[in-house]
Amino acid sequence: MNTAKKVLEEIADLPESLQQEVLDFAHFLRQRSDREQQRNLRNAQLSSLERLWDNPDDEVWNDVPVR
Question: Which residue, among 50, 3, 57, has the nearest Cα to 29 in the 3D structure?
Fold first, then answer.
């Protein structure tokens, strides 16, 4: 039996309010996972573009204020 089916079996007999709590927690976990994936993508982009940005010709841009 896969994990999703096990979770469904576990929560099936819980009161509605506790089922909602499990659902809220699942949403929290999804958001945390999404943020982690975005952070990993951003880091991958930064590392691949770093050599393009960090060069003598672009030194003039180092002092531009960032919003």
Answer: 3
Q: How far apart are CA 41 and CA 55, in angstroms?
A: 23
**For the chain, percent of residues with pLDDT exceeding 70:** 100
Look up residue 55 and give its two tokens.
């060069």
Under DSSP, the state recorded for 13 is: T
Q: What pLDDT sits at residue 51?
A: 77
**Half-sphere exposure at residue 35, Cβ-oriented, CA atoms within 13 angstroms:** 6
Query: Structure tokens of 62?
Result: 């180092």
- Average pLDDT (33-40) is 95
**CA 7 to CA 26: how far, in whole Å?**
11
